[in-house]
Amino acid sequence: VQASGNTNPAFAIKNSFVNNTTIENGGNAWQGIFGQGNQGVQQNFSIEKTTVRDSQGQGIFVQNNNADQQKFTISDATVEGSQGQGVLVQASGNTAQEFSLINSNIVGSNSQGILVQGIGNSAQKFVIDNSTINRGNSQGILLQASGNSQQSFDLNRNAIANNLLEGILIQANGTAKINFANVQLNVLIDNSSPGFVAALNSNQNLCLALNGNNSNTGFGLQQNNGTFQVVDLTNLAVNNTGTITNQGSFANLPACP
């Protein structure tokens, strides 16, 4: 599904099955579902109660290239056995995007279960809630902010287990800013150590609220540049279950600004 120009389309996929997407003659792997918004577009897209299995590329690929605004929601979905990422979300250029994944299962991806990338001057809000991300051959969830992008993340009530690398990895690079990363009530089991990592490599800010999470392979916070702000830093070990390793310096805040 693609939209361009000064249009305002709305699309919905419901109660569907997408199986065994293969490889085109040019050798490019096909996605199970591909949604794209281009310059000037204001687009709303939803996927509900849909199963995507055994895609040779990504299970679901959402891309925003200079669209004015794109809202994308996945709910009650299953994405299984993707050879690429289970779900890949990209925002680039001067664009705004909101993405939500709710009550869904991402299982057995050959790369990340979920990869979210913000580059250029993009502004992106991302929610993953009450979902399962298991048995991936990379991170369960990888959230990357690069360029001059501004990102905000809510990761709540998810079960993330048996991924080859971190259960959750949050990175801010270049001059990107993460306004808030709200990470609450997630259970991370048997991911590589540490199961959760937030790394600030940008010269800007990252604000993290980490509360009520359980990781049997621990947590790692890395301040390599910029200003790393942590909500209720002094009680971080009390508010979460699992060993916490801090690298660098951190600012204690009552709430993300």
What does this molecule look like?
It is a single chain. This protein is mainly beta. The chain contains one helix and 28 strands. The protein has one helix at 236-239; strands spanning 2-3, 10-14, 17-19, 33-37, 42-48, 51-53, 60-65, 69-75, 78-80, 87-92, 96-102, 105-107, 114-118, 123-129, 132-134, 141-145, 150-156, 159-161, 168-172, 177-184, 187-189, 196-200, 205-211, 214-215, 219-223, 227-231, 244-247, 251-253. It has a ten-stranded parallel β-sheet with strand order 1-4-7-10-13-16-19-22-25-27, with no helix packed on it. A ten-stranded parallel β-sheet has the order 2-5-8-11-14-17-20-23-26-28, with no helix packed on it. Strands 3-6-9-12-15-18-21-24 form an eight-stranded parallel β-sheet, with no helix packed on it. The radius of gyration is 18 Å and the shape is globular. The termini are far apart. Residues 23-27 have low confidence and may be disordered.
Please give the order of strands in the largest beta sheet: 1-4-7-10-13-16-19-22-25-27
> How does the overall form come out from the CA principal axes?
globular
What radius of gyration results from the CA coordinates? 18 Å
Structural class, please? mainly beta
- The span between the termini is 36 Å
Q: How many DSSP E strands? A: 28
> DSSP helix count?
1
Biggest beta sheet attributes: 10 strands, parallel
Average per-residue pLDDT, rounded, comes to 88
- Which percent range describes the beta-strand content? over 45%
Helix-strand pattern: EEEEEEEEEEEEEEEEEEEEEEEEEEHEE
| Helix share bin | under 10%
Low-confidence stretches: 23-27
